[in-house]
Amino acid sequence: xxxxxxxxxxxxxxxxxxxxxxxxxxxxxxxxxxxxxxxxxxxxxxxxxxxxxxxxxxxxxxxxxxxxxxxxxxxxxxxxxxxxxxxxxxxxxxxxxxxxxxxxxxxxxxxxxxxxxxxxxxxxxxxxxxxxxxxxxxxxxxxxxxxxxxxxxxxxxxxxxxxxxxxxxxxxxxxxxxxxxxxxxxxxxxxxxxxxxxxxxxxxxxxxxxxxxxxxxxxxxxxxxxxxxxxxxxxxxxxxxxxxxxxxxxxxxx
Length: 254
Ligand code: G
Ligand code: G
Ligand code: MN
Ligand code: NA
Description:
This is cyclic-guanylate-specific phosphodiesterase. Residues 1-254 form the EAL domain. By secondary structure, the protein is an alpha/beta fold. It has a single domain (2-246), classed as TIM Barrel (Alpha-Beta Barrel). The protein has 12 helices and 10 strands. It has an 8-stranded mixed β-barrel with strand order 1-2-4-5-6-7-8-9, surrounded by 5 helices. Helix 11 links the parallel strand 8 and strand 9 (231-232).
């Protein structure tokens, strides 16, 4: 209960920030994008993970306002970077389940793009499989409207949803993000490596971009490049960082 009230105040108190984690292409090692990650510095508890507070925000009806803050802040940052000549090609923004099914999301995205004069092609929205499959008809309608705005859609935590794959051909999806639980054991050359190989092949044949997340070692990076993964993200390549430090670190590489 205390956390709920603190969360309500946090929006007013400016206690949220976004950190940015770089993404690179495997072929040339170029910086191709970043994922915006929400952070909350609690006055007493210190940093609280979004894995903890996002579900609470959903429960207490705060996710619409918080999600809108994330969209606005991410778009403003991207516009500021572009104005400063730091042209990040793509910024990925996470959406929660409730945020996705509540009315108003498409309008919020459109408004943030317009407010900050953002090219929609610079924005990717990340959704998990479970969100996508909750209400197939509603999801299809919302994805089509987002697609019509020109933003792209990524399936986050791909492979952990125990779901049908048929949605991949029906929904307007651009990117698969292979969950980091598949990446961790990949350099041991067992079934996990073959699973990742199969996901990459699946993405290739459906013309989806494939990003591996949670890359923590040089060996994992090398294996993913051998497997022809498109892009990589993870602590080995760069931790999530405050906007002020993002470019200096991201451009220096691993
Ligand atoms: O960044 P971290 O590993 O602490 O993230 C934990 C979880 O919180 C992840 O599932 C991530 O997708 C989610 N998350 C991070 N930032 C956001 C955000 O801005 N909005 C939503 N809805 N979820 C986020
Ligand atoms: O569910 P999602 O993929 O959005 O989660 C993103 C979270 O993963 C972020 O909180 C981020 O801090 C975390 N993360 C990013 N890179 C790595 C990594 O290489 N290893 C681990 N363990 N976590 C990572
Ligand atoms: Mn994500
Ligand atoms: Na993930």
